Amino acid sequence: xxxxxxxxxxxxxxxxxxxxxxxxxxxxxxxxxxxxxxxxxxxxxxxxxxxxxxxxxxxxxxxxxxxxxxxxxxxxxxxxxxxxxxxxxxxxxxxxxxxxxxxxxxxxxxxxxxxxxxxxxxxxxxxxxxxxxxxxxxxxxxxxxxxxxxxxxxxxxxxxxxxxxxxxxxxxxxxxxxxxxxxxxxxxxxxxxxxxxxxxxxxxxxxxxxxxxxxxxxxxxxxxxxxxxxxxxxxxxxxxxxxxxxxxxxx
Length: 251
Fold this sequence. Notes:
This protein is mostly helical. Helix content is 39%, strand content 5%. A hairpin with an 8-residue loop joins β1 (89-92) and β2 (101-104).
């Protein structure tokens, strides 16, 4: 009974929330560095993923739950974070005249949306609303595999299938028709060094970054969970030994 309890506790502690992916989709399974109870984020991959987000995704997708100062988790120092934030325009105010105004971002600001509001976003995307990417990696079951498969899943539609105007065929999307145009074609981002800039390479880096954005304290949670299970295991052993000693003379 106690063994089952510990297994259940470990599962609850280490498992992230998930929703069923749904639909007839083709998921590509990958071994992620952050998978499993001892998994960790790959900081180099996260930095490349952030670069890919800025150059490929940020024109349509915001990350309103992430503050610029959070990028310290990616390995950026304070000066680099200030420089990144200053590249964005953030609405502030009201000023002394009661008017809102735009100013360069600071480390305490959250990443602004590329659109003023949802209606503006829909008007710019043929009625489709580009989702905020802050929690997108936790929005579906098998989130990392799903995102990777989605980014790399654009194909020619099967013969006989009609793709409506403004829609695109994607083997990983439920229903196979998606309103988002293909974002990656390979070599879309110029990485420093010899990092893989193929569709699969950039997609993998984006998943690392988006998984961190969805759960930035994942590594801490896992360490605490493992430590708690280890402590409870020791406590059970000590309790059992004490019970045997206390009741040793009872037959």
